C-alpha cells in the first residue's frame, strides 16, 4: 500500500511539472526522497553482500590451496615415512578435528560417520606433522591438521594395504564475523599408486565442522604398475663414520660426526636412518644422495667406543640393517707435558738447542708437537715426535728464539703448552 501511494505521488509530481505548475507540496517531496532512499539502501546492501561473498570465496580458496599443497609435498616423502608425528590426541571439543580421533588415540573417524581407520604413527621417523598452528595468510588465521590412516582394501590380502592422508584446514573467516570454517582434502598413498587429485570439502561454522553430510572423503586416484616389479632385494653397500678434522681414522674429538654412504639399488629412492643403540631407537629417515653421499650424525654422550648401525630402504620399502660401525669418542685433551728444559751449543754462525720435557698422560696419546717463534709473536710447528726430546739448529744472530711443547692424542686434541724457553741474540749457553 505504501509503495503504491509513493508511485502515485511520483506520477502526480511528473504531471504537475508537465502542466506548468510552479512547485511541489511537502508531501510530494517527502514521498520522492523516500523512494530514492529505498532504492539506494537496496543497492548498498547488494554491493556489501557481493564483497562479503567474494572475500569468503578467496579465504576458502586459500585454505584449499594450502591443503592441496600439503598433499603435493608429501608425495616426495618416502612411503615408509608417511606416518603422523606426534600422535594425535582425542579432543572433547566437537568443533576441533581431533574430536574424531578415538579416545585411545589409535584410530581416526575419517568422515565423522563412524568409519574409523587405524592411525599410522611414528614419533621418531614420521614425516607428516600433525598440527601446524598458527598459519596466517593476510587477515586469515588457519590451523592445519594432518592424519595418516591405514586403508583395508577388500580386494587385497591383509589389512594394511595402503595409506590415506587427510588434511584439514580450519580457518576463521573475518568476512563472516570470525566463524570457524573447514576445508579438507584426502588422498591415497601406496607403492605404485599415482595420485591425480584429491577432493576438497568445506564445513561452515563450529556446529558443522566435520559434518559427514557436507563432505566426501574419497580421492580421485589411478593405479599404475609397480615401479620396480619383482624387486624383493634391499639396497646393498656400506657406510663409515668420519671423525673431526685432524683425528685419526676411528677416532673423533667431538660427538658430531660425518657418515659416508655407498649404497645402490635399482629401485630409487634409497633412504636410511641411523641408531646409536643397535636399533632400539632410530633417527629421522633421510634420502641417500649419490652426488653428495654424506650426512651428519650426533653420537651418544660420553667418551668411549661408539657403535652405530644403519637401516636402508629402497623405493618399494625393501629394508636391511647393516652391521655396526664403531668410532672412539675422545674429547679429553692430554695433560700438559712436564717442565721444558734446554741445552745450547754454538758452532760458527749456527746454534743448536736440545729440548727435553716430561711425558704427558692420555689414554690415546699419539705424541708431541714442538712450536718455535723467531719474533715472539708468530708460532709455527717445528717438529712432531713421539719421544720427549727434540733439537733445532738455527742462526745464532737471530734476535729472539722461543720454544714450547704440547701433547696431542689420536682424536686430535692438544694439551695446554709447557713453559716457554727463550734465547737472545748470540746466546750460546
Tally of alpha and pi helices? 2
Q: How many domains?
A: 3
Shape: elongated
Helix content range = 10-25%
What number is the mean pLDDT?
80
How many angstroms does the end-to-end distance come to? 129 Å
Cα-atom Rg, whole angstroms? 39 Å
> What would you call the quaternary organization?
single chain
Characterize the biggest β-sheet: 6 strands, mixed
Strand percentage, roughly? 35-45%
Low-confidence stretches: 193-226
Q: What are the secondary-structure elements, in order, as H or E?
A: HHEEEEEEEEEEEEEEEEEEEEEEEEEEE
What is the count of β-strands? 27
Which structural class best describes the helix and strand composition? Answer: alpha+beta
How would you characterize the overall build of this protein?
This protein is an alpha+beta fold and 429 residues long. It has 3 domains: 54-223, no CATH class; 236-329, Immunoglobulins (Immunoglobulin-like, Sandwich), CATH 2.60.40; 341-424, Immunoglobulins (Immunoglobulin-like). Helices cover 15% and strands 38% of the residues. The chain is built from 2 helices and 27 strands. It has helices at residues 2-18, 26-74, and strands at 84-85, 107-109, 116-118, 128-129, 131-137, 140-151, 162-173, 179-189, 193-197, 200-204, 220-223, 236-242, 251-252, 256-264, 271-275, 286-287, 294-298, 304-313, 319-321, 325-329, 341-347, 350-356, 365-373, 380-385, 389-395, 400-409, 421-424. The radius of gyration is 39 Å and the shape is elongated.
List keywords for this structure.
alpha+beta, Immunoglobulin-like, 3 domains, six-stranded mixed β-sheet, 27 strands, 38% strand
